[in-house]
Amino acid sequence: MNASQTAKISQLLQFSDSAFPVGTFSFSNGLETAAYEKVVTDASSLEQFARSAARQAAFSDGVAALHSFRAAAAGDYGKILEADKAIMLFKMNDEARQMLRRMGKKLAELGCRLFPEGMMKQWLGDIEAGATPGSYPVAQGLAFQAAGLSEEDLFASHQYGVVNMVLGAALRCVRVSHYDTQKILYTLSFEIDPLYEQAREMDLYDMHSFVPQTDVLASLHEKGTMRMFMS
Fold first, then answer.
1. Domain ranges of the chain
2. How much is the pTM?
3. How confident is the model at residue 228 (pLDDT cuts 50, 70, 90)?
4. CATH class assigned to 5-16+25-219
5. What's the pLDDT score for residue 13?
6. Dihedral angle at the C-alpha atoms of 170, 229, 190, 144, nearest 10 degrees?
7. DSSP string covering 15-31, please?
8. Which residues of 86-123 are buried (b: 16+ CB within 10 A; e: fewer)?
9. 120 near 143, Cβ under 8 Å?
10. Where are the alpha helices (DSSP H) in 174-211?
């Protein structure tokens, strides 16, 4: 089905909506522990944390999403599996891997209903058989390609999702208002294009993200006894 530009904009909004049923509300991308440890305490430190999360994701999850999008467009299923395994091997902490697997499978299940003729069904079958991890960035790449959206749309939605996940969690565990979070979201939107220009040229095995404090916070969260979020 050929979609008009208006329909494509609507689909981009749908896939980027925080209410899209893949479980993003269950995760904080490490913010909960950052708030508990007083690393993030206000709007200024929240903006820095969200920017770091976006940059870290751009050069890892974002790269995997772009490669799966291109592989789906080329009909190269082997490259899709390669991207799926590469991003999971890249993640240092178990909760990050768990987050990607849970959200990835949810999107794959939904994608099979939205795009019954694409590669999503085969990929979901491999996830259920334990043949591939089923990561969320790869699911995003498959879904956006099946919908006829562009890789620029994919990357923008991916970045929006990362930042919005952090900001949504912040409203529940940091002293900030909706005004603060919306200003941060608007500010960081101007940083998506430069990140895309770098990520689009990266090979799967060029993925990188040196944010050690985030990994330390994630390791603390795994052993934490007080929590609102999975990650």
1. 5-16+25-219
2. 0.90
3. low
4. mainly alpha
5. 87
6. -150
7. HH-TTSSS-GGG--TTH
8. bbbebbebebbbebbbbbbbbbbbbbbeebeebbbeeb
9. yes
10. 178-189, 192-199
